[in-house]
C-alpha cells in the first residue's frame, strides 16, 4: 500500500518541502479582472507569492522563452493597500522593481511580473498573459479509516498530507478548522518493524508538533497520526481504524538531496 519500501526511509535525509501553491502560466491576453475570473474558474486564483522560493517556482512555471509581462494577484484594495486576490494575509514578501511602486499616473492599481521576476504597477485594464495558482491542500469531509483515506488521496489527488515545517502546519491547521470531526488524518504512520514514525510520502519526520505526553515508542503498533481540528491543533496518535475527515495534497512533495 505504501509507495516505497520502508527500508528506503533509512537511506536518505530529505530536504523537506511541500509546495502549497502550484503555478500555471496562461498565455492569453486578458485584463486583470478577466484573468482573475479565469483563474478562479479553472484553478484557485491569480498567483499569490509568499516568499522567494515561490517566486522562483513561479518564474520557472513560465519558462525561459517568454520575456513579456504577466499578471499576478496583487492589487490595491478599497483601503488603497496592496492585497492578494486570494485574500491571503498581507504582502510580507515583495519583489518590486527598483523604480516601483510609483503610480506615476494614479491609475496603476494592479501588478504584473516582468523578467527576470520583478514586479511593476500597471493599469488594470491593460491586457496581458497571467499566472494562476492551485492550492496544494484539500479537506475531504468524509469519515474514513486511515487506510481508506490514504487510498482515496492516492486515487483522486496525490497523497495524504505531510507536514514538514511551521508554515505547512499553519495552512493545514486552517484547513482542519473546517472539518466535521475532532481530528483529521495526516499521512503519518508508526512503523512497528523500524520503531519510528514516518510520512507515507517516504520523507523524514523533520518537523514535529505532538501533543505533550501523547506518544512514546511503546504500544504504538497500528497507530497513525492525526491533527486536532481546533486549538491548540497538536498531532496525536490514534488507532488506524478510527473514522475521520482527512487532508490530501494535490501535488507530490519535492524531495531533494536524497
Automatic annotation (TrEMBL):
<feature type="domain" description="C-type lectin">
    <location>
        <begin position="12"/>
        <end position="133"/>
    </location>
</feature>
<dbReference type="InterPro" id="IPR001304">
    <property type="entry name" value="C-type_lectin-like"/>
</dbReference>
<protein>
    <recommendedName>
        <fullName>C-type lectin domain-containing protein</fullName>
    </recommendedName>
</protein>
<dbReference type="InterPro" id="IPR016187">
    <property type="entry name" value="CTDL_fold"/>
</dbReference>
<dbReference type="Pfam" id="PF00059">
    <property type="entry name" value="Lectin_C"/>
</dbReference>
<dbReference type="InterPro" id="IPR016186">
    <property type="entry name" value="C-type_lectin-like/link_sf"/>
</dbReference>
<feature type="domain" description="C-type lectin">
    <location>
        <begin position="128"/>
        <end position="249"/>
    </location>
</feature>
